[in-house]
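Supplementary material to the annual report.
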Amino acid sequence: MAGLKDDAQWIVLMGFVVSFSLFFIAIVLNQSTVIGQTTAEAVLEFPKNDIRGVRDVIIQSEFLKVNNIRDVNNISNVQNDIRTLSLSRQNSVVNISSTQPTISNPYTTVDIHYNNGVMIYNEIWRSK
Amino acid sequence: MVNTDGQLYTIEGIAAGLIMLMTAYIVVNSTSVYTLGDTHISDMQLEVLGNDALNLMNTAPNSTTGKSPLQTIVETDDAETFRSMFLTMVNNRAGSDRDHIQFVANVTYVDTGGSVSSTVLSDSLRPFVSGEHAVRVSDWVIVEKRFPDDSSGKHAVLVEVLLWRD
Amino acid sequence: MSIDFLVGFTIFMITFIWVATLIPGLFIGLQSHTIDYDAVAYRTGVILVEDPGAVGPLVTGNQPWEIQNDTRDVARFGLAVSKETPRILDENKVKRFFCSTAFSYPEDYQKRVIFGDYPYRFNISLRAVGEDTPRSVGDVVPDNYLFGYIRRDVKIKSSSNTAIGDPTITKYGYKNTENVTLNEFRIVINSSYLVTGEVGEIDNPNGDAAYRINPNGDRIIINITDLDKTRNTVIHPPSEPYTVNLKEVKFYQTHTGDSNLYAFSPVAAFENYIYVNWGTTAQKPPVDLGTDRNLSMIFEPGFFSSTDKYGAIYINLTFELDPKQQFLNNTHTRPFDYNYHPTNVTQPALTDAIMEVAVW
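Predicted assembly:
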């Protein structure tokens, strides 16, 4: 190889230059398209409305009344329905427990646990 | 005439060309080109709208009527009212023109035996064919009715709506 | 120049040109900026519809943004009544948000609701069902290129109001039995009860903000009609001329755990709040009730913002009669209660509306 001249190596160099610029363009492109993509997917995948819905209905169920007295039977019916339906239709495990107001603590608290395998949501809701 | 020096430029040219081609091939393959359909933006918009409509139907119009329209609709199995309310809500726009969203709504309930089943509540009179790109939204309703029969007691049911644009 | 060089260089150039033609193909995904714009539109929609907004750090107390006089105290727009009630918009926030004299497009809106460094252009429209033209802020939506878009269904919560007319006056016995010159009529707005008590038939304490009357931030309208009917027409027949003046209106408040009354007067911006005989000019007392003898008091949002949220507000109206006679007076009965009873007060109602956000 000693006899070879290296006059022509600039062509290879040009090749490299073009290749590198292509890589840079590719990196920039990848970054920019990802923004909108991830937002839409995050909105679709994050179960915001499922959590809000189940949270609302649980709190609503805690305040079912019959003749102004806490309707214990219906509350347990409704909350059982919520557990069963969220497991079968929203693939989520929902746990509910609550404490009723006493003289020393005049607030109703509702303990809500939601887990769909990807997202876990826990809340201790307290009445005003 | 024939010596190895003669192909020096040619060989370098081919080499440079090959490098560029290889890079282009790799870059084109690795940069996935997103179109609007790939990004699920229209799905996201449809889901947001469906959730809005269903949730607002489940909101009482004022504090003197304790029941929401959706509660009454589910209790009385009123397909017609659901259809007109829901279509108005999802298809109304800020301008005067209207959108073209279709839907099928189901009520999912736990029956007396403890198993989960569904019944059709309402639809937009347009059959759902498998080619449609649909999204599912749902909301909870506490009703004074037990599906499928009418025995008393309060129960939670899930109103599920499939929405698509045609 | 040898043939060798020409061949090598040609091969290089041909491949280079071929590769160069591939590059525009890479940009297809970028041609529609809507991917990013849709995300901004979605975010703007969520902020407006699901967030109650925020005030700047200089604002003391628990005051909402829509009653801030200085627009610099508004940190973030958000039209929701509360964060527990997404999709329920407050009428007062909506009015302030679309007020083009208070805020100017685009700067004021960009840093309070659109966010981001890029100077997005946008259009936000809100149309209540039944109205023909939407309220709108921003540029005209372009029709020649794509833009980011989101549509939200919402409900707008209206203000409460009361009409104290003959039925109410008769029901609660608000007619005086003595002939006096000065007749006092008292109205109580029990903030503590309005803010924390049960709201009508709404059982769910999590969503009841949508129906609450909040004296600190809401508009409160009190109409008093049928004043003529409170006179004793046996002693003073309707044909007999008489004059009636609303001599003064006094405001008192109580504080939590303190039953003493503390007087306060409206700030200068709100000192005209009385409308006589369905007129359009606001006046301050004393006011001559003229011949129709109807009276409206419109307390704009923020009128009671300085009062104790967990206290009560008393409004004492003094009517001066000539000649002295029986008139609207509840000195010997109880003050009129502005509460959640539909017989006393027309409750806040929710009306459907559609919001559209376009960003480009």
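The helical segments of chain A are 9-45, 48-62, 72-89.
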